[in-house]
Structures are given as structure tokens and as C-alpha cells.
Write a structure and sequence with these properties.
The protein has about 300 residues and is an all-alpha fold. The chain has 13 helices and no strands. The chain has helices at about 1-30, 35-55, 65-90, 95-105, 105-115, 125-140, 150-175, 185-205, 215-245, 245-250, 255-270, 275-290, 295-305. The longest helix is centred in the last third of the chain and has 29 residues, at about 215-245.
Length: about 300
């Protein structure tokens, strides 16, 4: 039992590190690769790799029926295409730590969308306070200059916030559908669907062709990391943890990821972490604690039982 707990803790830290450093990789890559191109190329490669893995390991790799293809379409649009297009665009203007902290608002936004869109979901006054705290945390991170509310960092935070909202909305909308498709297969098709949408965006957006990409060491290293490590290894770690500990504890990864994003940004890119970023993170984490207080209380009780 102790060995299994240690293994689970190791997986948790590993996933946090893998996804935290993905913000560093993206920040390094968007210097030379336009955000839409970075997102499209990432999921071209990651989708093919994950689908190959699903074909070899999953009981079923092809979606069937309207419900499964609906989940693929919604997830591919919001989780992959919109989320990453906005995230990478925002990372042109903010540090890895700031992006990681703002994205950690995702579980809080999901609770807000669920309250608004799902009839059986409600938000108590304390939960509403948690949502408000989370939004205040983002405002603190943005630290806007009243004289210039359209400054680059404010715009970057707004774009990353919209990317978190897209992901949270996708989580709520896909909850309406029940599917028996293995998670690896589902994620692979979402990636491929999202990649197609990203290429359609490239066709109409004034971004320029593949010739606009400068294949520097940072661009190549960032793309390889995002494709193989963050999308490949990261999702496999996520699936394993989801089976071991369930959705509540997996959500806690979002509150360790910014620590690795900040550390990685400092070590590899020389980025500094500001006091406003730390304060915003504390507010967002407190908001999550209020929203998920009942589930977290149950997790603490179960841990007390395990450790006796």
C-alpha cells in the first residue's frame, strides 16, 4: 500500500512537471513560430502519435454514433483548437508563470459554466465567493496599468483567460454526452479534429504560410516537447492518475503546474516571478478550495483513513 501511494505521488509530481514545463516550451517556441502554426503542427503530430497508440492498445479506436462524434467535435473545437490558439497567442506577451497561473482558473470557470448551463448543477453562496476570488486572482495577475489597459501583458492575460474559459466550457458541454470510447482514442480524435480546425484558421487568418516559421533551436525544442512529452507522455500520465485517484485529485494538478512553469521559466528563459503573480495564484487556489470544499474534505478524510 505504501509503495502504491509513493508511486501515485510520483506520477502526480511528474504530470505537474511535464505540463508546467509545457508553458516554458510554448513561450520559447512562439518567439519564432506564429501561435496558430505552433498549435496546428503540435496536434498534427500529437494526434497521429496518440491515435497510433490507441490502435495498438485500446479495445476500440474509432468513434461510432452521434454522441461519440459530438464529443469529438466539441472537444476538438474547444479543448484543442480554440484553447491552444488563444493560449499560444497570449504567451507571446506573458511569462510562463503568468500563463500557468491564469490557466489554473479552469476548474473554477468550469463550475461557473456548469451552474449556468446544466440544470442539475448549482452554485452556493460560498461557491460563488470562490468563483469571485478566482476572477480577482486573474485581475491581480494581470496588474493592469490604468493609463494603458491595452498594454501587451494585459492583452496576454486576457487571451490566456479566454483560452481557460474555452477549455472549461468544453468540459461542461461534453459532460452531457456519455461514451464508452476509450479515453486515449477519444483524445486522439479530438486532437486530429482540432488540428483540422487550426489549419482552417490558418487558411483564413492573416498569418502567412509555413515560410513565416523560423526553425530555431528554441522553436524545434519547444515543438518536440509539446508534441512528444506534453501531449504524449503527459496525457498517458493523466489517464493513469485519473484511474488511480479520480477527477478531484487530478484537478489539483492545476495548482502545482504553475510552480513548475515559474521554475522552468526562471531556469531556462530567465523569467522573473512578480509578487502580483504569486498573490493572484493564492487567490485562485483559495477560490478553488471554496468551490470544491466538500470534495476536498472527503479526500482529506480518506487520506486520514489510509494513513491511520
Amino acid at each position: 500500500m505504501a509503495s502504491q501511494r509513493h508511486t501515485t505521488a510520483g506520477l502526480f509530481v511528474s504530470l505537474s512537471a511535464v505540463w508546467g514545463l509545457s508553458f516554458v516550451a510554448a513561450r520559447a517556441a512562439v518567439v519564432d513560430v506564429p501561435p496558430l502554426w505552433l498549435a496546428a503542427l503540435r496536434f498534427d503530430l500529437a494526434g497521429v502519435l496518440l491515435l497510433g497508440f490507441a490502435v495498438l492498445t485500446a479495445e476500440r479506436w474509432l468513434p461510432t454514433g452521434r454522441a461519440e462524434w459530438s464529443v469529438v467535435a466539441i472537444g476538438g473545437t474547444l479543448f484543442i483548437a480554440v484553447h491552444h490558439a488563444l493560449l499560444f497567442a497570449g504567451q507571446q506577451y506573458v511569462t510562463s508563470a503568468v500563463a500557468g497561473v491564469v490557466i489554473s482558473l479552469d476548474p473554477i470557470l468550469a463550475a461557473g459554466f456548469a451552474c449556468a448551463l446544466l440544470p442539475d448543477e448549482g452554485l452556493s453562496p460560498v461557491g460563488g465567493l470562490g468563483l469571485l476570488l478566482g476572477l480577482c486572482g486573474v485581475a491581480v495577475v494581470a496588474n493592469p496599468d490604468p493609463a494603458s489597459l491595452t498594454g501587451p501583458e494585459t492583452v496576454g492575460v486576457a487571451l490566456v483567460l479566454c483560452s481557460a474559459a474555452a477549455f472549461a466550457l468544453g468540459a461542461v458541454l461534453t459532460r452531457r454526452y456519455r461514451t464508452e470510447l476509450p479515453v486515449a482514442s477519444l483524445q486522439a480524435w479530438m486532437m486530429l479534429f482540432g488540428a483540422v480546425l487550426l489549419h482552417l484558421m490558418l487558411a483564413v487568418a492573416p498569418v502567412g504560410g509555413v515560410g513565416t516559421i523560423t526553425w530555431s533551436e528554441g522553436a524545434l525544442a519547444g515543438l518536440v516537447y509539446l508534441t512528444v512529452v506534453a501531449s504524449g507522455l503527459g496525457y498517458l500520465l493523466y489517464f493513469e492518475l485519473l484511474d488511480r485517484v479520480g477527477p478531484v485529485e487530478v484537478n489539483l494538478v492545476a495548482y502545482v503546474v504553475p510552480l513548475f512553469a515559474a521554475l522552468g521559466g526562471w531556469v531556462f528563459l530567465g523569467e522573473q516571478v512578480t509578487l502580483s503573480t504569486v498573490a493572484g495564484f493564492v487567490l485562485i487556489a483559495a477560490g478553488f478550495g471554496l468551490l470544491k470544499r466538500s470534495a476536498l474534505r472527503e479526500e482529506v478524510r480518506s487520506l486520514r483513513t489510509v494513513f491511520g
